Amino acid sequence: MMTNKNPTTHAEEDPLAPTGLESMESLAENLGKADGEPDSQAARIAELEAELANSRDQTLRALAELENTRKRAQKDREEAGAYAISKFARDLLNVSDNLRRALEAVPVDLKDVDPRIPGLLTGVEATERELLAVFDRNGIRKIEPLDEKFDPNFHEVMFEAPVPGKAAGVVIQVVEAGYILKDRLLRAAKVGVSKAGASPGPEERLIDEQA
After folding, report:
1. pLDDT higher than 50, residue 142
2. Which of 5, 35, 92, 135 gives a 20 to 30 Å CA spacing to 52?
3. In whole angstroms, what is the distance from residue 151 CA to residue 180 CA?
4. What whole-number distance in Å separates Cα of residue 18 and Cα of residue 26?
5. Spatial CB neighbours of 147, under 8 Å, sequence gap ≥ 6
6. How confident is the model at residue 90 (pLDDT cuts 50, 70, 90)?
7. What is the pLDDT of residues 45-84, one digit of tens each?
8. Which of 196, 199, 198, 204 has the alpha carbon at shortest distance from 168?
9. Cα-to-chain-centroid distance, residue 69
10. Cβ-contact 26, 17 below 8 angstroms
């Protein structure tokens, strides 16, 4: 009767096979890695979204600045076109002033003495009218603020004088007319204004007495 010399009741253990403890640790480590991946992806997505928002903000700012630059350039071109004649117009103001002075310098009685005077005055008046018409066509307006309230933006005070019946700060004389080009002052009107403390006129004294 033959018998097995090396009977075995259990499978031989593989020395390279992991032990039960090692298998549990490996499984836990793999699970930890698997659990960490969603957090990493979410963080990366949040980072990319932040970069995208920053890029969008920078792009919008750049577009806004470009639009502002375009508008400024357009405004500069419009103003350059509108006010290009400022210097030329300012030089012509003296011509207008001299025409007016010439008309006012001729004595009234001289018109009857010399028959040539009325014709000369008519020519000067026609020249003045034509010059003012040219001014008007180019947006140049004359300022003659007689009896208006003094405005420091458009008027220059040459003198002050008490005038009965006039409130203080009213233009009582236009020494030299002013001019405006569109909405820009070319030359302030030189004026005289009423001074505060003027003695009351006859009508004002009568009102005071009746009161």
Report:
1. yes
2. 35
3. 14
4. 10
5. 170, 171, 172
6. confident
7. 888 888 888 988 899 998 888 888 888 888 777 767 667 7
8. 196
9. 13
10. no
- Class of CATH domain 141-211: mainly beta
Smallest Cα–Cα separation from 163: which of 139, 187, 198, 131?
Answer: 198
Q: Is residue 8 predicted with pLDDT exceeding 50?
A: no
Report the C-alpha gap between 197 and 161 in whole angstroms: 10
- Rounded to the nearest 10 degrees, the angle between the axes of helix 86-105 and helix 116-137 is 160
Contact present, 190 and 176 (Cβ < 8 Å): yes
Is the Cα torsion angle 103, 107, 111, 113 positive or negative in sign? negative
Q: Token pair for residue 42? A: 């979410």
Task: List, for residues 18-36, the tens digit of each pLDDT value.
Answer: 455 455 555 555 545 545 5
Q: Render pLDDT for 36-50 as a digit per residue (tens, 0 to 9).
A: 566 788 888 888 888
Q: Give 86's contacts (C-beta < 8 A, 6+ positions apart).
A: 181, 184, 186
3-state helix, strand, coil in the chain (%, to 5): 55, 15, 30
- Joined together, the tokens standing for residue 80 give 């350059």
The contacts of residue 193 (CB under 8 Å, 6+ apart) are 150, 157, 159, 160, 161, 168, 169, 170, 171, 172
- Taking the C-alpha atoms of residue 19 and residue 127, their distance in angstroms, rounded to an integer, is 119
Helix (H) or strand (E) holding 205: helix 202-210
- What is the chain's length? 211
